[in-house]
Amino acid sequence: MPEIIRSPITHHVNITLLGQSYQVPCQPEEQVLLMEAVALLNQQLEATRAGGRTMGKERAALMVAINLAADLQRARQELQARDDQLNAVAARLRRLVDMGKGAE
């Protein structure tokens, strides 16, 4: 579990990835999000390294980064598609309301 270090000026979170410790500056309101991201990254790194193939830490980190970036891109595309659908529905509703006003 990441350790939170607080100072009057800056908040830092101590994290460990693949046995290497890092101190990451973070806004107080983003600490939970950062800790969740670290947990996800550690989970993915462990799964990648446990996959049977022998690979170095840097290669494992790169593979996880590529997979997470692809997941992010898919999520962005899905979000854009939903935005497009909502905009189409909103436009249709506006047309229907306008037609209803014209019938009054």
Brief characterization of the structure:
InterPro entries: Cell_div_ZapA-like, Cell_div_ZapA-like_sf, Cell_div_ZapA_N. This protein has helices at 31-49, 57-103, and strands spanning 3-6, 11-17, 20-26. By secondary structure, it is an alpha+beta fold.
List the helices and strands and how they pair.
Elements: E1 3-6, E2 11-17, E3 20-26, H1 31-49, H2 57-103
Antiparallel strand pairs: 1-2, 2-3
Helix pairs in contact: 1-2
Q: Can you describe what's shown?
A:
This protein has one domain. The chain has helices at 31-49, 57-103, and strands spanning 3-6, 11-17, 20-26. The chain is elongated, with a radius of gyration of 23 Å. It has two helices and three strands, in the order βββαα. The chain is 63% helix and 17% strand. The chain has 104 residues and is of the alpha+beta class. Strands 1-2-3 form a three-stranded antiparallel beta sheet, with helices on one face.
End-to-end gap: 64 Å
Q: Evaluate the radius of gyration.
A: 23 Å
Spans of at least 5 consecutive residues whose pLDDT stays below 50 are none
Mean pLDDT: 87
Number of E-state strands: 3
The count of helical stretches stands at 2
Helix content: 55-70%
Question: Which shape, going by the Cα principal axes?
Answer: elongated
SSE sequence, one letter per element = EEEHH
Label the structural class: alpha+beta
**Which sequence of strands runs across the widest sheet?**
1-2-3
Oligomerization category of the chains in this entry: single chain
